[in-house]
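Model it.
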Amino acid sequence: MPNEFLWFVLMIVNFIGILVFYRYMGKTGLYIWTAIAAIIANIQVVKTVELFGFVATLGNIVYGTTFLVTDILSENYGKKDARKAVVVGFMSLITMTIMMQIAIVFKPDVSDFSQEALTTIFSFMPRIVIASLTAYWFSQLHDIWAYHLWKNRFPQKKFLWMRNNFSTMVSQFIDSVVFCFIAFWGVFELSVFWSILWTTYIFKWIVAAADTPFLYLAKNMHDKGKINELVSTDK
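Modeled.
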């Protein structure tokens, strides 16, 4: 199958996954998704692929969904709960990095077949994680701030698309620039580096635009009381 088709399939699977997690686990489900997405994105990002004639890294979709999660939390619960998701993602990355760095130091048995592959992926991980943590922290906090800025100015539901896209598109530009310079500067040739940076942003921008209907669905589920919260929100 062509990469472009798989890319769109992966995007829809991610969006549906978020709605399922949210529908049956509420805010807890969104926090769980954030942890999963943060870890998967930083594994997938070490793989480069060709999409629409450009060199790009995987991980753009699943990482981009973390912005949808914080927008859902901002819209339905407020700034405080959205910031909790940022902390969850941040701590998940740190924990995964520490555990995998210890894991690859273990001397493998003669029967082992995975050490070389794990080393290839996770020996590069510290630089990826430093880049991701830095970009993630600044871009997500900006996204939450910008979302509420637009929400305060245009609180009506019909402007949901505006606060979703206007906040996320700027935040993802910040994320792409910070991440690529820390993670890939000096790793790839300049032509490949700039291709990765701009395609990373463009593909995240597409994800941000495509997730808008799913934000409306999450909003409607919440307003109609269809969210099953694992932890009661009653005082």
